[in-house]
Amino acid sequence: MNIGIIGIGGVGGYLGGILAKYYANSDTKIFFYCRGEHAAIIKDKGLTLQTQGEEYITRPFGVIEPNEESPKMDYLFIATKNYSILTLEPTIKGAIDDDTIIIPLMNGVDGSDMVKELFKDNRVWSGCVFIMSRIESAGIIVESGLNNNIFYFVGSSTATELEMDMLRDIITPASKHFIVDQNIDKRVWEKFAYISTLSTIATYYNANNGEIFNNAGRVKEFVSLNEEFLSIAMALNKDVRDDIAEYNLERALATPSTMTTSMQRDYYNGGSSEIDSLSGYIVRKGEELNITTPLYSKMYNKLRLL
Questions:
Q1: Closest CA to 147 of 130, 135, 134, 172
Q2: Overall domain count for the chain
Q3: Domain match, 99 and 18 both
Q4: What is the domain range of residue 272?
Q5: 169 in the same domain as 203
Q6: What is the DSSP letter of 257?
Q7: pLDDT tens for residues 199-244?
Q8: DSSP labels for 50-74?
Q9: Do 168 and 199 belong together in one domain?
Q10: pLDDT band, residue 148 (cuts 50/70/90)
Q11: How much of the chain exceeds pLDDT 70, in percent?
Q12: What is the pTM of this model?
């Protein structure tokens, strides 16, 4: 069994580190796809994973850099930002055959849609992740959340029960945080609701959680964004809870006041960001469905011009 993880950042690094630790010296081989100094250090010293007060070093079976030949994967997890998909197409093609199951672990839904469009002959499942983790430095991944806040949901609404059980038998023994769920679309869209609304308002104001949720006006805007999101999700027949605004507000209030979003950090650091995937997607769907999204549109259009 070959399992590959493309993108050894906070999300992919935690997944890969846990799987590599569990499957060390076994017939199940874990491969990391990364590049540069990060890849060089992992090849030389292994991946250091700091989590839940522990630190350990894991070594994948192989580290594959761009343009290097890859064996074919049975499962290929894609844990990158949505905007990287097109540039990753050659890497993905080199790692798959007709039997490979591809599982994107990206924010929002358009990244998965792009993977499905590019690789129509493959089974492309879905996934979503709840974790606070990051690359501390090359070769080091730090998970900084609370133990019960780590969840990796993967699955497919069209997979057979046998296919679901096969993946379940592979990844769930490695960690209680890895969950195979046939109702994955609901998981993905409820995660999308949270990350889209929070990232949009946080990036618009360039504010951390405390600066947003200790401000009555911004709390009201956060609720309005959730209501606009819900109107789009319902029009698309997505299974999103009716009380999503209250639910997401409760979740946001439970997170550290100093927290910022990755979209916000990327945006103000001058690099590529997920603004089109997390904010623009809702605006575009609103236009297609003839549903007004005034606050999303206001925030997205201003951010596009900055």
A1: 130
A2: 2
A3: yes
A4: 187-305
A5: no
A6: T
A7: 999 999 999 999 999 999 999 999 999 999 999 999 999 989 999 9
A8: EETTEEEEE--SEEE-TTS--PPPS
A9: no
A10: low
A11: 99
A12: 0.91
Distances (CA, A) of 29 to 65, 102, 155, 170: 17, 16, 21, 11
**Structural tokens at position 133:** 């983790």
Going from the C-alpha of 236 to that of each of 154, 233, 282, 286, 289, the distances in angstroms are 21, 5, 11, 10, 9
Report the CATH number that the domain containing residue 216 is assigned in CATH.
Answer: 1.10.1040.10
Q: What is the DSSP letter of 271?
A: S
For tokens 């009201």, the residue is: 220
Percent helix, strand, coil in the chain (nearest 5)?
50, 20, 30
Selection from 127, 125, 189, 188 nearest residue 160 by Cα: 125
- How far is it, in rounded angstroms, from Cα 277 to Cα 232? 15
- Residues 36, 121 share a domain: yes
Which among 182, 210, 227 is the end of a domain? 182
